Amino acid sequence: MKKKGIAIIAVAAVAAAALLYGATRGGGTLTAASLNLEGAQVTRGDISATVHGTGTLEACEERDVYLQTGGRVETVWVEDGDAVEAGQLLFTLEDEDLRDQLRAQEDELYQLELELSAAGIRDGSTTVRAPVGGRVKALRIAEGDDLETVQGQYGALMVISSDGRMNVTVPAQALEAGQEVRVHVDGKVEEGTVTSVADGQAVVTIRNDEYAASETASVRLTSGEEVGMGALEVSKPVRVTGVSGIVRRVSVEEGDEVDAGDTLFTLESGPVSLTLEERLLELEQKRRDVEAVRRDIENLQVRAPIAGTVDAVALHEGMSAQAGTVAATVLDATRMKVRLAVDELDIASVQPGQTAQVKLDALPGHTYQAVVDRVLPLGERTGEITRYDVLLYMDGQDGMLPQMSASGDIEVDSAQGTLLVPVAALQTVGEDYYVMRMPTDADLAGASVPRSQRANPFAQPDDAALLQSIAPQLMTPVQVGLVAGEQAQILSGLSEGDEVVLVRSGNSLLDTMMSMRSM
Question: Does this model's pTM top 0.90?
Fold first, then answer.
């Protein structure tokens, strides 16, 4: 905080006489009214000392948007300068291989969960129940069987047809997906539909799962022409497996229809085998694998990490992007940072927590309140002046953008209800401050010059000599506190309502004083 310019007068009495001399009227009667001095009253009010700085507006926080999953950019939803909310969609990517991988792993997980559920693992029960509703097919167990032995021999304890359908695969020839055909099996004719055609083979589905698996079926066109023959298979099999235990009782027979939760068989109680532990670990790992792929697919939807303004969009539709690519940057719009450069002579008075009034060149007519966060310790020297950066924070407002030019006044001290005078009333003698009290008629009436001090002892003293004689009683020493703008705080020496003389550059009285000092 620099001191304001204050006229330095070596001898107060000479200054006062000079001011008054310039106000005489050529030997006429000297009165207070005839002086025509510019004055001001001592008032009481508030004063704030500020430090000025200039700089730029910055985003309080910048967050780069990284791609967590690579893929082809399908849609770019934003462009530079767009305002976004936290979580708002910025980009949409696509990766069909990833979706195929998820479907395959979900199928594997589903099958594993069904196997362990059927084995009674979930509730620790020795009763094995149907994991789904359907028809029992390929029943491989009987009372007294060891589950591990049967499982090792057949790969499943039984199969449940879960959708009531069976398939047969034949040479495709001229068949097309969706085409209606006739399927002849065990002396019966079933209505069939070509459900898929690939690699020269056609899969035909019938809506009846009462036939034995592997039974031969003949597929014919509606005209009666035979297309081919093949073995029937369960369309959507759910394999019931086991890992440990001896079968005590089997509750179903092959061909029975069951509902989900129906008892299939009961096991003798026994310790959990090493195979069971391995299957449980496999289940947990498969769940983690599925969850990881799901997260990757979710990350194909790229969203804003914070609310703010989008900058530096680096993707365009149709391009391929790898995981780890910086797709864009989001600048926080809710809080802004102001970086002000402050002169080294003022920086010691700046402290965290002080408030400041900030203006932006791009938004004239607006003033914003900011708070000092810290002073950066490394200054930058330009010529003979060193400046230090002060960081302030304030709420974001409409129209604010990073890199806007800013200026601010930081309030470093203040006083309320204190005595104030214009800075133009202050004069200095050495390190002491004085003001000239406005002279009254009584002051002027008592003015006299001893004969010994007159230039001509036989002549009447001139007005200047008379004024000089009362100058010491008009000069009042004062103690000055804060100085801000055109106002100065008076700590002692004056009272509210006192009138003082203003000394301004260009004033005829001041000019007269200066000319007398140079003689």
Answer: no
